[in-house]
From TrEMBL:
Domain Fe/B12 periplasmic-binding residue range list: 50-337
InterPro entries assigned: ABC_Transporter_SBP, ABC_transptr_periplasmic_BD
The species this protein was found in: Methanothrix soehngenii
Gene3D superfamilies according to UniProt: Nitrogenase molybdenum iron protein domain
Name of the protein in question: ABC transporter substrate-binding protein
């Protein structure tokens, strides 16, 4: 190539790069105003560089959209909820994820709140220029005591509708100049939903099994007045179960995370029972329900259709676990229809989309034990 041609090519490349740079600058012009999930107008004077999140769900969105390097602090449970770990001991769980997410900064990420308390002095010291939270009460407190812009996301991680969790992703994309990344993440999640729904929507409603979902597990037996981690607590509106082709027998109840009478569960006579379980290597809840004389008449017990499932909560409602629950429940209830569904492959794809780390689901399955045992039973 002659020197003249090489020079001309260099000029063209420089020109194209300049156009791309100028276009990006125009798209990210400041100040800018947008609306959060609560209809509040938010104005940002410049691109956020120091982000704090009130709960793990908000931190997960920031990371999923590629802004984990801007995350300077989070809620206490962020360390154990994003990469699933033992809450009181971060040497047990998905260690590879924990040590590599957000460029290895997770173990030392400052904690600015707990479930009940917010450390406003620590937050002020960290000088955030943007805070994400999940409700108006926290937003008002942050604005009053810290003064920087506060964006309310919210949205349950199992609500796979445009007005649910996807709306939170869109708003975060607006705040972070990450609209394309937000659209890609939403399209990814919708693709997984469509993968399952394309099969289950063809199933006649009368042929769908009746399902009881013990959303808080059964580690504390039938009733737990202190923490509500009992068999009689359920979610009347749980998208993953419905999309998976199950008839949620509690769906007529108003509200969310409600307790029902044990006698009502027996009267419903579910064909399947799913029990949330995040206790590594511990099937206490599952074994208790399978062997309870009070439940012996239920079809699910008699037919052996009582299964663990992934805990839908973790100081929030983690969308990655709930999206996977949808696929897992579909496979359990319809093994023939989903014979070719590779749960381990799908699980790793889902967790990587939200956390940016490979192999998280495989690590999670090994850590909890029961998912690995289930996957091995399919071979």
């Amino acid at each position: 190539m002659s020197k003249r041609n090489l020079w001309n090519r260099s000029i063209i490349i420089l020109f194209i790069c300049s156009i791309i740079f100028l276009s990006s600058t125009a798209l990210a012009s400041y100040p800018k105003t947008f609306t959060d999930t609560q209809g509040r107008e938010i104005t940002l004077d410049e691109s956020p560089q120091r982000i704090i999140t009130r709960a793990p769900d908000e931190a997960r969105i920031v990371i999923a959209l590629g802004y984990g390097d801007k995350l300077v602090a989070g809620e206490q449970a962020t360390k154990s909820c994003l990469c699933p770990m033992t809450f009181s001991n971060t040497t047990e769980g998905c260690l590879e994820c924990y040590e590599n997410i957000i460029d290895g900064r997770m173990p030392d990420l400052p904690e600015i709140s707990t479930r009940y308390d917010i450390y406003f002095e620590e937050i002020a010291r960290l000088e955030p220029d943007l805070i994400f939270c999940g409700n108006l009460k926290d937003a008002e407190a942050f604005e009053d005591k810290i003064g920087c812009p506060v964006v309310v996301l919210g949205g349950q991680g199992w609500n796979f509708g445009d007005e649910g969790y996807f709306d939170s992703i869109r708003v975060a994309g607006e705040a972070l100049d990450a609209r394309d990344q937000a659209d890609e993440l939403i399209a990814f999640a919708k693709g997984k939903v469509e993968m399952i729904e394309s099969v289950t929507k063809e199933i006649d409603p009368d042929d769908r099994p009746k399902v009881y979902f013990a959303s808080r597990g059964a580690s504390n037996a039938f009733y737990d007045p202190k923490e509500g981690r009992d068999f009689t607590r359920t979610e009347p509106k749980y998208d993953p179960l419905t999309i998976a082709g199950g008839n949620n027998i509690a769906s007529e109840i108003n509200g969310s995370t409600v307790n029902v009478a044990l006698e009502q569960i027996i009267a419903w006579n579910p064909d399947f029972i799913f029990i949330s379980n995040s206790n590594a290597g511990n099937n206490t809840g599952l074994d208790f329900i399978k062997n309870s004389p009070e439940l012996a008449s239920i079809n699910a017990i008699k037919e052996g259709n009582v299964f663990n499932c992934f805990y839908p909560h973790c100081r929030g409602t983690p969308p990655d676990r709930n999206l996977f629950n949808m696929m897992y429940m579909a496979k359990v209830m319809y093994p023939e229809e989903f014979e070719d569904l590779d749960l381990e492959k799908e699980g790793n794809e889902i967790f990587k989309a939200f956390l940016g780390v490979d192999g998280v689901f495989s690590e999670y399955a090994n850590y909890l034990v029961w998912p690995r045992e289930y996957l091995d039973s399919l071979k």
